[in-house]
Amino acid sequence: MSSVSPHTSLHMPERHPFDPTGGAAPNLTASWARHWESNPDLDQIHDPDRGWLQRGELAQESVVRAGRLARIGLSPGDRVLLSAESSYDLVASYVAALRMGLVVIPTNTAYGARELKHVIQDARPKAALVDTPDKHAAIAEIDPGMLALSPSLNLPDGPTPLLDAAERGSAALICYTSGTTGQPKGAVLSHANCLASAEGLRIAWRWQSQDRLLLCLPLFHMHGLGVGLHGTLYNGSSAVLYRGFDPDRLLSDVSAQCATLFFGVPTMYHRFASHPSVKKLTALRLCVSGSAPLPATLHEKIETATGQRVLERYGMTETLMLVSNPHDGERRPGTVGFPLPGVELRLEGEPAEIQVRGPNVFNGYWERPQANAEAFTDDGWFKTGDLGSEDSDGFVSIVGRAKELIISGGYNIYPREVEDVLRKHSAIDDVAVVGESSDEWGERVIAYAVVNEPVTIQELREAIGDELAPFKHPRELHIVNALPRNALGKVQKHRLDRGRVLPD
Ligand code: MLC
Ligand code: AMP
Predict the structure, then answer these.
(1) Does 15 score more than 80 pLDDT?
(2) What is the pTM of this model?
(3) Any atom of ligand 2 within 6 Å of the Cβ of 36
(4) Domains of the chain
């Protein structure tokens, strides 16, 4: 039995039809350029070292950088990997790349050489913009022919290429994610997908040019990049960039920067909740949580301390934002709210999987026909791999996952990938990796192993080294006599709990 949620219009104050092109913007960067032209002197991006930079500066700087990228031989459709800490340089180079029609592959800065190699071999970018000597060295080894540049793009200038001319349906981003299966795949997001999501959030969250976002989320995942940065540029508003999460700094910047918005993952709200200055959040217009479930108890704790009713929303790399609690009216703790403008949602099967359709939903994974066939239903709905329910008022809840995935601090970890690396260790005969609930992290990565000689978690982590980004490393190791398996030999992970093997 399936149902399509009819509650989308609750996000729309004026009930105008939703326009996924955001007022006929030819593409994403053209939608940003509207604001640069109208008011070039307004502050747009605050860099932790350089302070405020204005819209006009960003516009001009992106023109210069596009010229440099074109001069070294990049042309529309070429892919560029981007992996760097938040900075004005990163933003200006990102904007330049998109303006000239390049396809950007944002990549987690915590990735080690093995993870980077997979992305590079799969997507075959022509150039990479990276900000550490380690990454430059790794790229030189993986593909000596690839251009490894720094995000500041200190290169000779070149003639300005054609800007803001990408077709709406052409690719803007390739974002690596494992989807419902283990192997990371590149989700190809078009300018049209990004535009539709930005317009939906503009309406639903009443995002205006006067808004100022405290943006401490990294700029290589959808939350920081596709929601935070794109929304800022789309609405002609401003954002204060941070490298990492520093609650002292963020809370004092609420007033010092006259901020109106904060977007974070539940781990950040957990840390705010026990901070002596948490009340400073009260001054914000809107606090949004996403990327992982926000426990209702934490929602209530923040409300009691600050009066803020954190707005929880739900999204995915493949779809950008899907469902959100409302700006006006009740924000119901433990739910993710109603489908955003333009998004159709249905619950399919038993247990019910959330399936979605809309102009924000990607067309498919990069060069993965088989995965694409599995990711969509025959009638064109994208299968999220999340299990959901809808209450009688239309609020959607995420009640579980059909996919094997651990979400820790908002980062996705695929147990299979961790198990494959752990299995290479000579002491390990058999291993299963599970996510165990944690107040701070949501879930923590825990390994259960059958071993042939004593081994500690520290030794295992040292052996893993940079085969896995540190956030994927197991935090605890439980040694067991045997892993519980069903008749087909599949590990029964639900029986692994707090160091014990539960009875069948
Ligand atoms: C850091 N560490 C983590 C971790 N982040 N471990 C598990 N899970 C995480 N998420 C580890 C580091 O490896 C290190 O361990 C130690 O914690 C300290 O590192 P740090 O960098 O100082 O960590 P911290 O500042 O505490 O980082 C926590 C955090 C960060 C919550 C600020 O994880 C974060 O920015 N998360 C946001 C992720 C995000 O943007 N997700 C959006 C995905 S998009 P050690 O042992 O090595 O020293 C998406 C779609 C959607 O999901 O709907 O939004
Ligand atoms: P990613 O592939 O990194 O984009 O992660 C997407 C996944 O994050 C979704 O499929 C959900 O499982 C999860 N997610 C995002 N937002 C929420 C939320 N508010 N509550 C629960 N899970 C969420």
Answers:
(1) no
(2) 0.97
(3) no
(4) 406-501 (3.30.300.30)
